[in-house]
Specification:
By secondary structure, the protein is mainly alpha-helical. It is 61% helix and 0% strand. It contains seven helices and no strands. Helix 2 runs antiparallel to helix 3, helix 3 runs antiparallel to helix 4 and helix 4 runs antiparallel to helix 7. The longest helix has 22 residues. It is globular. The N terminus is likely disordered.
Length: 142
């Protein structure tokens, strides 16, 4: 008996299927929460670039980063069911590691693993026809 014919007898009913997976993907309220967080992150970044110093102890960044950490963990806990879900997960990961796009020293020092992570996230967004970090100036990899 060949290996091919022996595997053909395996029960297909017990095999998990993407098409048969349950769940509706990432909830819309969680996606909306991330969108709001992203806009607040961009606004704080803009304020920093303009050197508007209202928060000397950086509590705004601490609060944003804490919320981002929790929100990203929730987003990544879902199995993506749509291209939009996958783009949302890519954006959440990119925002958690935004220095790979926005900080020249980090981009220059990025090792092969960080470069690969950046490229796959960019590829997901590009395949979907979406910007990974909309409205954010990014630094190209060398």
């Amino acid at each position: 008996m060949s290996a091919l014919s022996s595997t053909a007898a395996l029960p297909l009913i017990a095999t998990p299927s993407i098409a048969a997976a349950s769940g509706a993907g990432i909830p819309h309220d969680l996606a909306a929460r991330f969108a709001d967080l992203y806009e607040r992150w961009r606004e704080q970044r803009r304020r920093d670039e303009l050197e508007i110093v209202e928060d000397l102890e950086l509590t705004s960044w601490d609060d944003l980063n804490s919320e981002l950490f929790k929100t990203q963990a929730l987003i990544m806990g879902y199995q993506p069911r749509t291209v939009d879900d996958l783009v949302l997960q890519a954006r959440a990961c990119a925002l958690m590691n935004n220095d790979l796009w926005t900080d020249a020293a980090t981009v220059e020092a990025a090792d092969a693993g960080a470069r690969a992570q950046r490229r796959i996230l960019e590829s997901v967004a590009a395949l979907a026809g979406a910007e990974l970090l909309p409205g954010v100036a990014t630094i190209a990899l060398a």
